[in-house]
Specification:
CATH architecture of the largest domain: 3-Layer(aba) Sandwich
Keywords: Hydrolase, Magnesium
CATH class of the largest domain: Alpha Beta
GO biological process, one term: sucrose biosynthetic process
Catalytic activity: sucrose 6(F)-phosphate + H2O = sucrose + phosphate
InterPro entries: HAD-like_sf, HAD-SF_hydro_IIB, HAD_sf, NTF2-like_dom_sf, SPP-like_dom, SPP_C, Sucrose_Phosphatase, Sucrose_phosphatase_pln/cyn
CATH superfamily of the largest domain: HAD superfamily/HAD-like
Organism: Cicer arietinum
Number of helices: 12
Shape: elongated
Number of domains: 3
Strand content: 25-35%
């Protein structure tokens, strides 16, 4: 990736539904834990890849429903689409590879002859993916018959059955595993092969990820029978694959620690975050995440309202520093902290969370960083966000806030006082 000047320290490649995202966790606690860990300890030198069976349409819907951070790379539609960055720029080289011995019209023609197949919605029918629902009892028979027919028609296809209901027909060279192999080869050619790669999944269409040579893998505790069966038949003696005891994103964090791939203590798991000692050589993202978590705990009244605590916060702000609120009003940073004291406990007992996304830090002098990130506040179903640009200076082993400028990310936030 262009934003990294050298090889990524770690690349995490994760499925979304029931792996990174726990649809049974109404508080999104495991996702918030992962977000805080990634932005504080990994965003600056590592790569996050989301590998999902969802189409771009359903992927974007999920991002609106869940407090997800932005990946560096998105593999969608069961490994048939690869895009880069926040703008989701497509990989044209991957598209050209998938065109070999593939004809979507022939696939549609032949599948209409199988009454057992129920087409999925139009958004899930992609250039290199034709998708259906099929009952588990019919899946094997249909798969075998279709494979023979499409081969006779001159196509090289792959049929993937997952989740006990989803049947996807793809070019033979497509799939989550092949997309990852393509990326790793591309990085190797560019001299930026990741130091370690961790793949994460829960269902049958994730099995290919675990087959890539050299990667670490985690099957989250809630992994489906089809993936556990694949593991038992193909990789039960592989010490690089872990069946986690934790669900979803918490299982991913567990695997990071199990394989010693880097820090595995999320800032959300530190009880006295306000008293946490600064780590030598900590990235600026660590300070950003910690301050936002302090703001959340303050407003939820989960830390003590004391003059000593407020004074410690003020001590980390430059006396002449300026905070520009997204509404356009500007304040001395210490004045801003005085405003913060007035909202202590205003979200107590409520579903209120703060998270940051896409923390990007640029060192502009020996002790100063320009940091930009998206900051989000979630209150029940309401979400308000702003893009924040701040200047941090490293004094001894702690950061001092020199300047903060926030602007709205969306119109709906303009009636809120966002901290």
């Amino acid at each position: 990736m262009d934003r990294l000047k050298s090889s990524p320290r770690l690349m995490i490649v994760s499925d979304l539904d029931h792996t990174m995202v726990d649809h049974h966790d109404t508080d999104n606690s495991s996702l918030f834990r992962f977000n805080a860990l990634w932005e504080s300890s990994y965003r600056h030198d590592s790569l996050l890849v989301f590998s999902t069976g969802r189409s771009p349409t359903l992927y974007k819907q999920l991002r609106k429903q869940k407090p997800m951070i932005t990946p560096d790379i998105t593999i969608m539609s069961v490994g048939t689409e690869i895009t880069y960055g926040k703008s989701m720029v497509p990989d044209d080289g991957w598209v050209q590879l998938l065109n070999h011995k593939w004809d979507k019209n022939i696939v549609i023609e032949e599948t209409t002859k199988f009454p057992e197949l129920t087409p999925q919605v139009e958004t899930e029918q992609r250039a290199h993916k034709v998708s259906f629902y099929v009952k588990k009892d019919n899946a094997q028979q249909v798969t075998e018959a279709l494979s023979k027919i499409l081969e006779q028609r001159g196509l090289d296809v792959k049929i993937i059955y997952s989740g006990g209901v989803d049947l996807d027909i793809l070019p033979k060279g497509a799939g989550k595993g092949q997309a990852l192999a393509y990326l790793l080869k591309k990085f190797e050619t560019e001299g930026k092969l990741p130091g370690n790669t961790l793949v994460c999944g829960d269902s049958g269409n994730d099995a290919e990820l675990f087959s890539i040579s050299g990667v670490y893998g985690v099957m989250v505790s809630n992994a489906q029978e089809e993936l556990l069966q694949w593991h038992a038949e193909n990789a039960k003696d592989n010490p690089k694959i872990l069946h986690a005891s934790e669900r979803c994103a918490s299982g991913i964090i567990q695997a990071i620690g199990h394989f010693n791939l880097g820090p595995s203590l999320s800032p959300r798991d530190v009880s006295d975050i306000g008293q946490e000692q600064n780590v030598e050589n900590e990235p600026p993202g660590h300070a950003i995440v910690n301050f936002c978590l302090l703001s959340e705990k303050w407003r939820r009244a989960e830390i003590e309202n004391s003059d000593v605590f407020v004074a410690s916060l003020k001590a980390t702000s430059h006396p002449s520093g300026v905070f520009i609120h997204p509404s356009g009003t500007d304040h001395n940073i210490k004045e801003y902290l005085n405003i913060m004291t007035k909202v202590y406990g205003d979200k107590q007992g409520k579903q209120f969370r703060i998270w940051v996304d896409n923390v990007l830090a640029t060192q502009i002098s020996s002790d100063t960083w320009l940091v930009q990130f998206d900051k989000w506040e979630l209150h029940g179903e309401e979400r308000h966000g702003c893009v924040v640009t701040t200047i941090l200076r490293k004094d001894s082993d702690s950061f001092t806030v020199m300047h903060v400028h926030a602007t709205w990310l969306e119109q709906s936030g303009q009636n809120e006082w966002i901290l």
